[in-house]
Amino acid sequence: MPVVIDASAVTVRRGRRLVLSDVSLAVEAGQVVHLAGANGSGKTSLLRVLAGLSAPRVGTVRRPARCAFVGEKVTLAGTVRAGEWLTVMRGLRGLPAADWRAAVRDAGLEPSVLSLPAARHSKGMLQRLTLIEATEPGCDALLLDEPFVGLDAAGHEWLVRRLLSRLAAGAAVLLTDHSGAAIQRLPVAAVLRLDGGRCTLDAGATAPAPLLHTTLPDGQTLTRAIADPSRAHHILLAEGWQIDDGPA
Amino acid sequence: MIARVARRARYVALLALRTRAPLAPLTATVLAAIGVYAYPRSGVGETWGLTALMACALSAWLVGAVLAAEPVAQADIATVALGGRHGRTGLDATLVVLVAAGQAAWLVSYPLVARRLGYTDVFVPPPRAVDVFVAVLAHLCCALAGGSLAVLFAPPRLARRASAAAAVMASLLAIVAVSRPLGALGGPAAVAAALTDARLHTITTRELIACTSCLVLATALTIAAMHWANTRG
Q1: Alpha-carbon distance B86 to B211, whole Å?
Q2: What is the ipTM of this complex?
Q3: Which residues of A238-248 are buried (b: 16+ CB within 10 A; e: fewer)?
Q4: A13 Cα to chain B: minimum distance (Å)
Q5: What is the pTM of this model?
Q6: What Rg value do the Cα atoms of chain B yield, rounded?
Q7: Which member of A83, A124, A194, A201 lies 3.0 to 4.6 Å from A41 by CB, making a disulfide possible if both were Cys?
Q8: Chain B residue closest to A55 (CA)?
């Protein structure tokens, strides 16, 4: 599989503080990589360096694929209309026009949101809009900082569907996620744990968990990455789903 | 290349038009021209020298206002979409060039259009094509230097708007202060001095050197801005 992001011996400093030391990683097409670690461990700093927002003090970062980045705190200029922003961003990436009405409808939003200024959108709606823009076909390296935080349950399901379709098309996802939604729902190929400026591969998650697809009564598909299929019932019940085993 | 510049210009235009951030500096630019040419029988060199120096400060204000109107999260998304800091520098440069071209067009054309409309005593004696050429070059170079200065102190390098405004003001004053010892290499103030001292209907080497020093200053500021952003981003 082609490498979409390749970082070698990256060291990041903020003033005198050493944030990351000698971090190397390679993300291949079709992979989900989860960056884990405590608050302040350098997850966001690493994402920003990989995205090209800042340069490492030492080391190199290669980005052969077109990248998209969505930060944890999403804000757009309050008077900019969502539809205009999506269209202009697509142009800024040098990609052909997209059907934003269909993409917005798929995200569970009314197409009328496209004509509203950003100030009229809630935090969750703005997050969906920026995630729609980032996950529209064209970008093969998706760098997402806490993408599930701020989304409701339906938003989680939509984002999982969206990311799975991009992964199937050969995109790679590198994300941070404190909510646990990514580990439960996406085929995470590797968990990179940041601690004390160092990055280590979490041995417990070296193989991606198989995806379990369940059809809901309304026709939607529920997808979960569950390592032990015999525990699927327990996991879904713990999430609050009601399971009807049907007539015996 | 042209398509890429057009796409960047479209993003900048969306930001500027929707946020209305340029309203105050544009008003100041319009009033500056009206105020300068309210007095009849102005000399060509000294007046265009003055407005070129004003273009430096006004374009710094305009560029700074547009960049400050872009929320940090939105700027991050756009920067990554552009391919990182190099791409972002291209976007910032597009904004600076557009603003400089607009400033030069307005401040140089205002007296010429006024003359066409019958106000023939705006300039005495009237300018020739060579004077207009020098004026456009001077305004463009000064505005490019001013705009680049605003980029240097725009987010993510300086996050607070008041700090950025103070830094730009202090830098403009410093540029004027060091212009005398530097002579023709003194940037925008040297351009103003060169235009004032030049003989009418000529292009002098001093004017060209002063304009070149503005371009060198603008390039140095742009490179410094990119490096600073790489450490602050």
Answers
A1: 26
A2: 0.88
A3: eeeeeeeeeee
A4: 9
A5: 0.89
A6: 18
A7: A194
A8: B230
